[in-house]
Amino acid sequence: xxxxxxxxxxxxxxxxxxxxxxxxxxxxxxxxxxxxxxxxxxxxxxxxxxxxxxxxxxxxxxxxxxxxxxxxxxxxxxxxxxxxxxxxxxxxxxxxxxxxxxxxxxxxxxxxxxxxxxxxxxxxxxxxxxxxxxxxxxxxxxxxxxxxxxxxxxxxxxxxxxxxxxxxxxxxxxxxxxxxxxxxxxxxxxxxxxxxxxxxxxxxxxxxxxxxxxxxxxxxxxxxxxxxxxxxxxxxxxxxxxxxxxxxxxxxxxxxxxxxxxxxxxxxxxxxxxxxxxxx
Length: 280
Prior knowledge:
By secondary structure, the protein is α/β, with parallel strands linked by helices. It has nine helices and eight strands.
């Protein structure tokens, strides 16, 4: 939704839908108090000056605002409003914010996986309710990307890209834009699927790897690819909304901060393709 069409009423409605599902009446946990400054402003511009802003995630051009509203089983889940891929187009999303490095040997590892599954399902349910209520979600981003693609046609670049992202609505939208810019693009939505794709020929020149993945996460995929001689030199662009510094992911060739504008995406994919050609 365009910023000039977005209103504080959209934000208030989105928060209300989130809280109703995250804290059902059967729960003994009360929802957090919503500060008046977050919902009282009369204009969206004023409201955006009040909402907590994730500046560490805004390196590549998009704006991201979040509230840590949690849910009745996990206090760290986030309500997100972000500008993604297209300037001044905003979308609501749920960030489960549960990508912690819990070892499979930890005594409560199975319980942790079950909680992550719960968070993921709850986030999907909240976003589905938003769509029903006419609140813009990443499904609208996919439709917008697909509508923009015909106007962004460029010549075939002869570069294969593997896009690894568990959010298929975002992945399909990105694929349409990358294909329009002349890239061949395939999708994997789990780390395990990515490894299966990369076990077959031909290898892609560029892998865009999401850090937050169910099961085998982006860090585990990155380590596995670097450990195998066949994929050790693949150009890998890690995409994340986490405040991770390059020094924390030395095996990645570059980090792309979410939410990003599409021009930084195209620029970095081009740089990764040139890097891969220099390694071949």
